[in-house]
Design brief:
The structure holds two protein chains of two kinds. In chain A, strands 5-15-14-11-9-8-7-6 form an eight-stranded parallel beta sheet. Chain A contains 18 helices and 15 strands. By secondary structure, chain A is α/β, with parallel strands linked by helices. In chain A, helix 14 packs antiparallel against helix 17 and helix 17 packs across helix 18. Chain A starts with 9 loop residues before the first helix and ends in a 24-residue tail after the last helix. By secondary structure, chain B is α+β, with helices and mostly antiparallel strands. Helix content of chain B is 20%, strand content 29%. Chain B has two helices and six strands. Chain B starts with 15 loop residues before the first helix and ends in an 11-residue tail after the last strand. Classes of the chains: A alpha/beta, B alpha+beta. At the A-B interface, helix 6, helix 8 and helix 16 of A face helix 1, strand 4, strand 5 and strand 6 of B.
Amino acid sequence: MNTPTTIKEGKERYQPGVMEYAKMGYWEPDYMPKDTDLISLFRITPQVGVDPIEAAAAVAGESSTATWTVVWTDRLTNCELYRAKAYRVDPVPNTGPGTNIDQQYFAYIAYDLELFEPGSIANLTASIIGNVFGFKAVKALRLEDMRIPVAYLKTFQGPATGIVVERERLDKFGRPLLGATTKPKLGLSGRNYGRVVYEALKGGLDFVKDDENINSQSFMHWRDRFLYCMEAVNKASAATGEVKGHYLNVTAGTMEEMYERAEFAKQLGSAIIMIDLVIGYTAIQSMAKWARKNDMILHLHRAGNSTYSRQKNHGMNFRVICKWMRMAGVDHIHAGTVVGKLEGDPHMIKGFYDTLREERTLESLENGLFFDQEWASLNKVMPVASGGIHAGQMHQLITYLGEDVVLQFGGGTIGHPMGIQAGATANRVALEAIILARNEGKDIWNEGPDILKQAARSCKPLEAALMTWKDVTFNYESTDTADFIPTPTISN
Amino acid sequence: MRLTQGQFSFLPDLTDDQIKKQVTYAINQGWATNIEFTDDPHPRNTYWEMWGLPMFDIKDAAAVLLELAVCKKAHGSQYIRITAFDNSKGWESPRMSFIVNRPKKEPGFKLIRSEDEGRNIKYTIESYATKNPEGERY
């Protein structure tokens, strides 16, 4: 890497024509980020022959004030303030010569708070991921992490309800919540759909959930689904004496329709509604405001995220989505299971969960967190673990994910050989048995299978679940893992 | 029916020894336990009667078990639960809640539907036990 001389001001800087980004003030290796700066960490794969510092400066430039050529109108502004500044570029371990991966770099870029509109994820993202990902000078680009200053966080509402108040409203403490997604995803009539909801809730689940693509189709229009689901919720609540819920998906083609569906859910007494990530950041923020105003828990399905979050060299890391969604104000977000059928390295998932649930997170390269992040009293988001999990994994799930999580067993409830109620009961008994044992100080990671077997002695449904799914695991290599070299510590 | 509120209602009723271990866990976390009882187990009856104040300064679960025994003597025909409160920043809320005593017979709840405009229904959940006045229900 050669170090270009930066020319920030003066006649020379504003000679018409093309100038290297690094020279135009977008590379400032001596820059000390301010507490109020927003810092982005990009993983850059420069095109062959492009200097990494120039690539980093280009990313800084294109995500703030620059265009491809020098413009004199910069001089009408306090342009140094508005220029994002790349201040650090590190080679990514295990890339480049000697590996089969192109050399990649981590670039740290600081943005002044003045660049962003208060309370707008749309504005923030239009800057940071607006244009730059298609930029020719980089072969690939990935937004890995973002340090959001407290001053900016304070302009966001944050989760409409949050973990603490959600638990208080539901009267459920000290254990993960249990859910399931109604299956099959498509084709059930409202009447048949409500049957699944009732059976699962009566059997012991706290929540049942619409799937991301259940909106209002020919086989089941939304009003019908809402009416039958609320019959099921109330009937199950009376049968058990517990608060129950069904996430009614209000995702629709327009905001007006979403509000209409949300209002109907509220009128029917639902505790929770649901939206899909594909509705967009502004729509999500609007629904979060609506949810806060109407005492509604807001569940978010991360539909579509893997199109840009899964591949390691390009797109954005899911932890950034977690941060934006905590700011945007959702109460639940699907964030991985570790043991289930969907992508998830244990360290990466811990990074996501901590980002959603903690008051502050400290830098932890092992878990993919590049910065200390203070959450400024924004409510906590309840992560949701869903996709290919079953009762026999309960001790692993609780070890990895803790107790502030919704565990969703879709197939693991509805596919139970003795029926849906039995499936739900098996999950609930497994859950309570493991939490009881954990609190008693037992080593649930190692003794888990025995604890479950013991609990199954007085619970036929659990016995059947353990038999049916005993060998089901999804051991595939994760595509998204941390790149860091552990610092050896001196052991005493 | 069996009321399934609380952390452990799907397991067989907890023994005193099991209750003691859970209380010990709460105390070790720095949480204050509280004994509460009710004869109105409606799912949204948040405020069960308090058996004294939360035990902020008790360091030994045995003392909580003694209190529980006295509470059971007085209200053994009702629901009794133990709740553990966490006063740390970001929580300031219950962190545990589990039933430790329940009536011999649990009649459950009636679901009352009142038909409304269109196909709408307004739902009310009513405990069969609460037909009688407080104190004469179980």
